Amino acid sequence: MLVLLGFVALLGSPVWLFAVLVRLIATALPGRRPDWGLRLLRWSAGMAAGAAVGLYPMAAGAVQLSVHESRSGADSWPPPTCREDVSKETVRHLVDYRSSYLPPAFDCVLDDGTTYPGSSGYRWMNSLAVGFAGGTVLLAAGARFGAERRERVPVPAP
């Protein structure tokens, strides 16, 4: 199920990117509303939150796909994710794997108890999700501060 949600998020990401680019271009063009800065902050906070939420199903779907690959099929052990980009000597010492959905990760366990990540993709997806979540908080705080500041500014009489 998470794999399907991950594919939906992956297919939806170009639409998200297109919306961000159109909004940025529209902001640069003349004829903006007077409150464009505040609206842009709110919209950007929403898009950053959408990106953070959209990255989770992609990463969790990748974990679920790696778990499925390591449990079924003729070539399932050692897990294909654990075989990529490592030496044959390391693969010989592989005894298990650990999967986690919060945060999404797929770690390969060696016979001495040490682990190594099955893929570097989880690291950058988790980092991007945390970055987008932090950006959401900062943008929302900026929008709130801007709205409060705007309410305090006296409006000149015509």
Percent helix: 55-70%
Q: Span between N and C termini? A: 60 Å
Task: Give the class from helix and strand content and strand pairing.
Answer: mainly alpha
Tell me the total number of β-strands.
Answer: 3
What spatial order of strands do you see in the largest sheet?
1-2-3
> Which word captures the global form?
elongated
Q: What percent strand? A: 5-15%
- Helix count, per DSSP? 5
Average pLDDT taken over every residue: 80
Order of helices and strands: HHHHEEEH
Q: Quick one: biggest sheet?
A: 3 strands, antiparallel
Low-confidence stretches: none
Q: Radius of gyration, Cα only, in angstroms?
A: 22 Å
What would you note in describing this structure?
- The protein has 158 residues and is mainly α.
- 66% of the residues lie in helices and 11% in strands.
- The protein has 5 helices and 3 strands; from the N terminus they run H-H-H-H-E-E-E-H.
- It has helices spanning 2-28, 36-71, 80-83, 88-92, 121-152, and strands at 94-101, 104-110, 115-117.
- It has a 3-stranded antiparallel β-sheet.
- A hairpin with a 2-residue loop joins strand 1 and strand 2.
- Helix 1 runs antiparallel to helix 2 and helix 2 (36-71) runs antiparallel to helix 5.
- The protein is elongated.
- The N and C termini lie far apart (60 Å).
